[in-house]
Amino acid sequence: MPLTVGQTQALQARARQLVEAVATTGYTYDQNYGRKYSRGEVLTVFGKAAPSITLTTDDLNDLVGTQGFCVTKRALARIGARLLRVAEPTDSDAAKFAALVLLWGYASQSHGAYRVGGILSGDRVRLGQNAVVSLKALEAGDLSGAYQTWLGQRHIHGLGEPSFTRILYFLGKAISPDTPLALIKDRVVSERAATVFAMPLLRDRSLGSYLAYIEVLAVCSQATGFPKERLEEFLSSVPPASLPGYAPFSAIQEGFPHAEAVVNVG
Q1: Nearest-CA neighbor of 43 among 68, 84, 71?
Q2: Which residue of 4, 186, 219, 244 has the fewest CB atoms within a 10 Å radius of its CB?
């Protein structure tokens, strides 16, 4: 069932507090956030792990921005639009795009390139197939289907919810650059969203929890005019002390339905 009027009002109140926190931290949404891998490092990942997938001159040029050679949000948006907004995107191009997204996602890990190389070595075919299936599901407005593509028999070892929701996010950006069709839900943002909105179910890694998370950020965005993807990035980027839920708040404490019931993404 959808959120009740009282639950929605409680979320809206917390959302306004959250946006006030955004203003006080000096946070700026950063499309250029990324990892400064060297050109040779990225070429080596693909050359050793997936020699059948070629990084073209256009791909490499798209990875050069104001910070030099860097896998950024802006670069991924350009590459996704070029590779995937075609009549029939290939599994190979989709795998290449997904691998670049994973490189971006592992930006804080010194062994990110190694991890991506391992996935490409073992499951690049399934990676590309899953990405294409998810892309088509998102194009059809089927967020649940896109999420479930990465589960069960299609699961890829090492790709849990944090990783495949990054892929979903950027696939959605390739389709709809200005209105994200999916959002990233990694461990950090799950924990912080659960605390800020007093909803422990958001810590779960399940389809129901993911849809609840999308619902919550949609309500908050509608209440404040603050885009959902900026709320997600803010939750994941700032020090926890900057978030209202990490101080005592009594206004929003209880009464939220179970994750499986919150599926009405408004």
Answers
A1: 71
A2: 4
Report angle CA 95, 99, 105 to the nearest 5 degrees: 145
Q: For residue 101, with 0-12 CB atoms within 10 Å meaning exposed, 13-18 middle and 19 or more buried, which class applies?
A: buried
Q: Could you report the per-residue pLDDT of 141-196, keeping only the tens digit for each?
A: 999 999 999 999 999 998 999 999 999 999 999 999 888 899 999 988 998 888 88
What separation, in Å, do the N-terminal and C-terminal C-alpha atoms of the chain show? 12
Cβ neighbour number for residue 67 with a 10 Å cutoff: 13
**123, two tokens:** 């499951």
Range(s) of the domain holding residue 158: 34-175
- What is the H or E stretch that residue 71 is in? strand 71-72
**Rounded CA gap, 249 and 252, in Å?**
7
Q: Which of 175, 192, 220 is the last residue of a domain?
A: 175
Q: What's the residue count for the chain?
A: 266
Q: How far apart are CA 149 and CA 131, in angstroms?
A: 8
Domain end, chosen from 175, 197, 222, is at 175
Domain for residue 167, yes or no? yes
CA distance 211 to 143: 9
147/182 Cα distance (integer angstroms)? 9
Considering its fold, how many domains does the chain have in total?
Answer: 2
- 130 shares a domain with 230: no
| Model confidence pTM above 0.70 | yes
